[in-house]
Amino acid sequence: QQQAMLLRDRTALSHLVPAAPFCLLTFSPLSCLALPMLLLLSPAKSLNYDIPVPAHLPHTLPAFSGDSATLIALLRGHSPQTLAALMKLSDPLAALNVARYAAWRPEAGTAATGTSNARQALLAFNGGVYAALDAHTLSHADLQWAQQHLMILSGLYGVLRPLDLVQPHRL
To answer: Per the count of CB atoms within 10 A, which of 47, 99, 127, 166 is most buried?
Structure first.
């Protein structure tokens, strides 16, 4: 049963990462020798939507955006007080997130489309790891490498690639 679950999970991830490292799922280090590296980051609690995104920066769409829309619809039904209790947030942070969920749209816009309610995941999260990555300084080649070898976990979006558009949220 566990092997079937691992195979199902690998199939679910295979469209995100070409040749998803099966060795990570089978726990066989020898099978990893010929496969590309896959780095997995946790999201940061704080977000950065203040620094402008370079206009030439490409973007992709999250693989599980339909599921994100379903979660947002559920979250929109809660008051700030309920969210504060449910997510263990301060009242101001709960109010901020109620406003974020109200502004969230299934079709994420970018500065290039004239609506900047979203940005690439690698630029949206603001924490120690993301500051050290300094994504604003990465070359096009570096971003393409990251797109193939870096995944970011998200409670709202599931597994993100660095250039997947995300909107302000907390989950």
So the answer is: 166
Structure tokens belonging to residue 98:
């109620």
pTM: 0.75
Q: Contact at 8 Å (CB) between 13 and 91?
A: no
DSSP secondary structure of the chain: -HHHHHHHHHHHHHTTSTT--HHHHHT-GGGGTTSPP-EEEPPPSSB--SSPPPTT---B--TTHHHHHHHHHHHTTS-HHHHHHHHT--HHHHHHHHHHHHH--SS---GGGT--S-EEHHHHB-SHHHHHHTGGG--HHHHHHHHHHEEEEETTTEEE-TTBEE-S---
pLDDT tens sequence across 88-141: 999 999 999 999 999 998 887 554 455 568 999 999 998 889 888 888 888 889
